[in-house]
Amino acid sequence: MAEKKRDPGPSVKDDELYEKLRDEGNSKEKSARIANAAANSSRSDVGRSGGTSGSYEDWTVDELKDRAKELDISGYSDLKKDELIEKLRDH
């Protein structure tokens, strides 16, 4: 059976990278953001840019919950710290 290719839509600028990221289990939104950022510059620049907020492990539970709220993530209020970090990273 042939594998069906996903159509990321017209807003994704690097279909090949999008497909690779989706195959790795990333969400549609995250894959599109990364693929578009890579298309707007070089892929090595995107990997190097990184965040400046530090490791989630260094954040307090209240800070993690605030971040989840900012990202409109639901179902985080009863999560333990490690579960909350996983949910944030998988967003």
From TrEMBL:
One of its GO terms (biological process) is DNA-templated transcription termination. InterPro entries: DUF7218 (IPR055642), Rho-like_N (IPR011112), Rho_N_sf (IPR036269), SAP_dom_sf (IPR036361). Residues 1-32 have a biased composition (Basic and acidic residues). Residues 58-88 form the Rho termination factor-like N-terminal domain. Residues 33-44 have a biased composition (Low complexity). Residues 1-58 are annotated as: Disordered. Pfam families: DUF7218 (PF23855), Rho_N (PF07498). Transmembrane segments: none annotated. It comes from the Bacteria. This is Rho termination factor-like N-terminal domain-containing protein.
